[in-house]
Amino acid sequence: MGTILKIRNVVFCIVGLAVLVGLVSLTGIGTRLRGLLTSDPPMDEHGESTLLAPQEIKTLKLSETARKNLHLVSKSAKPQTYWRTIQIPGVITDRPGFSDRGVTSPAVGTVAEVHAFPGDTVQPGEKLFTLRLFSEYLQNTQTELFRANKELQLIAETKARLDSAAQTGAISATKIVELDNQARRQQAAIQGFRQDLLTRGLTPPQIDAVAEGRFVSTLEVVAPPPRSFTSDQQAEPLDKNPRYEVQELRVDLGQQVQAGQLLSMLSNHQNLYIEGSAFKRESTLLAEVAENSWPIRAEFSDDDGSPWQEIETPLTVRHLANSLDLQSRTLSFFVPLENQSRSYEKEGQVFVVWRFRPGQRVRLHIPVEEMKNVLVLPSPAVVREGPEAYVFQQNGDLFNRISVNVLHQDRLNVVIDNDGSVTPGLYLAQSSAAALNRVLKTQAASGVRADIHVHADGTTHAAH
């Protein structure tokens, strides 16, 4: 009986001890639960948190197909000099004395025929109009030229007959001298009449015919010759082989015209102006830009650049207007623009298509500050998150996010400080930085780091 009581007491002790241990465990679990529910991190015996800070993931993995879908291109980062610019609106305009040329009537007459119509192209010397002349002045000039030419012939014949008599002394030598003087006077008159007819539009063969008595009753008005003067920047004639486009007709068939009356307007848009509109407070800056011939970058509306060539001649400010527009209160400045063209033939006629056209809008980037030893990227190559800015370095399929310091940003470019955050020579993504940042966040949320390789045996190592 005593033995049974001893065994029972031992069992009760063991059970009690187990219950006590269980209560202690439950108390610890409850404490942990309360800590989790109250967002209090677990502490060690020194009162410090035992949780490790999560490691920020900065690398993402992108397949080749994904890179193609994003049209992703990476280029080497190279320090360079960049000009900070301001944007000023502008418009393409005709360049006075260069772009348009008027064709006038050389004499009084009627329009007998029109050879070139609006949209047609002509080269120098090609016929534009045929005029039927009834100018009394032109008819008198032709008559006087014919009479003077005949008088010169009579003087020459008379002198030929009297030469032998003068040599024998039958007549005085003074008579021969008088005939020579008359011949010189007629030659001077003939030269004057011929020059007058040349200015009226007659050709040398036509004038030779008039001198022989075949008067001209119709006159061909042709396209003007190339300009012979030069610009202040070129030593060669501006027009070597121009092709004019008939822009406008100012007369009708059968219309009577006066000498000097405008018949048509021809255009050649090879040389144009970009007219910028700036505020008066920007005039000092623009004067400095013009004086130092700092290059200007231009963005043309409705112009994607294809299939045209790159503009080779640097764009610089030629001059500033010295008066303000009364309505807009803006100051105009002018940038010479050399145009590009291509032609095609249809129904035997050649037509010209110009790249730049008067009235086309332009956005001018005027340089204001030179920034040296900086990294320049396209705007889509940088993504911002609050005060932070990031770029992505490509290493095969992996893209590493790098925090950078942005010095300047505009609509097209971002200027990054070359402070060592980006090592020169690294290949940086030139676009889709925002998309890459979203992919990085998605991969980080999945819990699988893109820069860690997991092998079949369970071992891991960082990506090379």
- As a percent range, the share of helical residues equals 25-40%
Straight-line distance between termini: 78 Å
- Rg measurement, Å: 46 Å
Name the assembly state: single chain
Largest sheet: 8 strands, antiparallel
- Beta-strand residue fraction: 25-35%
Q: What's the number of extended β-strand segments?
A: 26
Q: What does the average pLDDT come to?
A: 82
Unreliable runs, pLDDT <50, ≥5 residues?
29-39, 231-237, 452-461
Sheet/helix structural class: alpha+beta
Domains (count): 4
Q: In words, what does this structure look like?
A:
This protein is α+β, with helices and mostly antiparallel strands and 464 residues long. It has 4 domains: 1-53; 59-80 and 372-462, conserved putative lor/sdh protein from methanococcus maripaludis s2 fold; 87-96 and 268-369, Beta Barrel (Elongation Factor Tu (Ef-tu), domain 3); 103-266, no CATH class. Helix 3 packs antiparallel against helix 4 (173-199). The chain has helices at 2-37, 64-69, 136-168, 173-199, 204-211, 283-292, 433-445, and strands at 59-61, 74-76, 80-94, 100-104, 109-114, 121-122, 127-133, 218-222, 244-249, 256-257, 262-267, 271-278, 297-300, 319-324, 331-338, 341-346, 349-354, 361-378, 383-385, 388-395, 398-403, 406-409, 413-417, 427-429, 452-454, 460-462. Helices cover 29% and strands 33% of the residues. The strands form 7 sheets. Strands 3, 12, 13, 14, 15, 18, 22 and 23 form an 8-stranded antiparallel β-sheet that branches. The protein has a 4-stranded antiparallel β-sheet with strand order 1-21-20-19, with helices on one face.
